[in-house]
UniProtKB/TrEMBL annotation:
Domain Response regulatory: 39-151
Annotated source species: Gossypium klotzschianum
Region Disordered, residue ranges: 1-20
Protein name as it appears in the record: Response regulatory domain-containing protein
Pfam families: Response_reg
Residue stretches of biased makeup (Polar residues): 1-10
A single GO BP: phosphorelay signal transduction system
PROSITE patterns tied to this protein: RESPONSE_REGULATORY
InterPro entries for this protein: CheY-like_superfamily (IPR011006), Sig_transdc_resp-reg_receiver (IPR001789), ST_Response_Regulator (IPR052048)
Length: 153
């Protein structure tokens, strides 16, 4: 039985707690159909985060490759690996994300993801050529528009 207000006509405010945001996110999850094959390089020193991001991308049909540091990412690109999107973190083992400025000439969109959302953090990412900067977590609300743009929608 559907909840109703005291008058019996409409749901109460407490039944509409998210103001439609959940329905909007569900629509984002179900409406994306990519026309082109997209590939993404995800580098994150935290294996769990890297795997979760790869699973999210794969759920949209995006092929992914993951590495845990910037040195390996730079080596992949130097050896000719091509990506539509690179997802980079600031804090990584061996060589941090801000030292990966050689990715700038890779010819793909670079997405900087970090737990810190300060202006200095944003400026540091933009200085190395990051196209888009978002605060963790990487979620469909931020990812889907980028995938649609890369897909030419």
């Amino acid at each position: 039985m559907a909840p109703t207000s005291a008058s019996g006509d409409q749901p109460s405010d407490k039944d509409n707690w998210d103001n439609g945001r959940l329905a909007s996110k569900q629509q984002l999850l179900t409406e994306i159909v990519l026309r082109n094959k997209l590939t993404t390089l995800v580098f994150d020193g935290d294996t769990r985060c890297r795997v979760l991001e790869q699973v999210l991308l794969r759920s949209y049909g995006v092929q992914t490759q993951g590495v845990d540091n910037s040195r390996d990412a730079i080596a992949l690109i130097a050896f000719g690996a091509k990506f539509n999107l690179i997802i980079i973190k600031k804090i990584l083992p061996i060589m941090n994300g801000l030292e990966a400025d050689s990715l700038n000439g890779s010819g793909c969109k670079i997405l900087g993801v970090t737990a810190c959302s300060g202006e200095s953090e944003r400026q540091a990412f933009l200085a190395i050529g990051v196209d888009v900067f978002i605060e963790k977590p990487l979620d469909p609300e931020h990812l889907v528009p980028i995938l649609r743009e890369l897909d030419g929608e």
